[in-house]
Design goal:
Helix content is about 30%, strand content about 25%. The chain is an alpha/beta fold. It has one domain: PGBD-like superfamily/PGBD (Muramoyl-pentapeptide Carboxypeptidase, domain 1), CATH 1.10.101.10. The longest helix is centred in the N-terminal third of the chain and has 16 residues, at about 5-20.
Length: about 160
């Protein structure tokens, strides 16, 4: 079940960021939809907990911003790098698309993303951003790194 972020989300986010900072590393997660400023091109991928209580992780595209990995990033045709590889992995393993996981956002990746967007009922434009992060399924892993299906990010 997907629940839109609200006041409880902000409290959990603050607690999570503080905890992660105390542990020596942090990943920021999506803010409320009205406050989604893109911080840059998705240049990497990072594992994040996909629910407030799960010990399993999903791998999502991120951008490095102010020393932290942040999910408020974008990609489109012509993008390259680890962020694209993370998206391609999700499109291949969670949506059954036959694409290379090569870090090159070309026509096959765009077509696969459009397919996934249509499956999730979101804007079909072949571009990755807020709707993609919030609605696509991502490769899921256990704490020991074992691949364990797919899941949506939800708090």
């Amino acid at each position: 079940m997907y629940i839109r972020p609200g006041k409880r989300f902000k409290s959990l986010l603050t607690a999570g960021v503080l905890t992660a900072g105390l542990l020596g590393g942090a990943v920021t997660v999506a803010p409320s939809a009205a406050a989604w400023p893109y911080l840059g091109h998705c240049s990497g991928g990072s594992n994040v907990s996909y629910t407030g209580t799960s010990t399993q992780l999903i791998k999502v595209p991120v951008v490095r911003y102010n020393g932290l990995n942040n999910v408020r990033c974008w990609m489109d045709y012509g993008s390259t790098g680890n962020g694209v590889e993370t998206l391609q992995l999700a499109l291949k393993s969670c949506y059954g698309r036959s694409i290379a996981v090569d870090g090159d956002f070309g026509p096959a990746t765009r077509d696969a993303l459009e397919y996934a967007q249509s499956q999730e009922g979101i804007t079909v434009d072949g571009q990755y951003g807020e709707q993609g992060f919030n609605n696509l399924k991502w490769a899921r892993y256990t704490q020991d790194g074992t691949r364990n299906g797919c899941a949506r990010y939800s708090f």
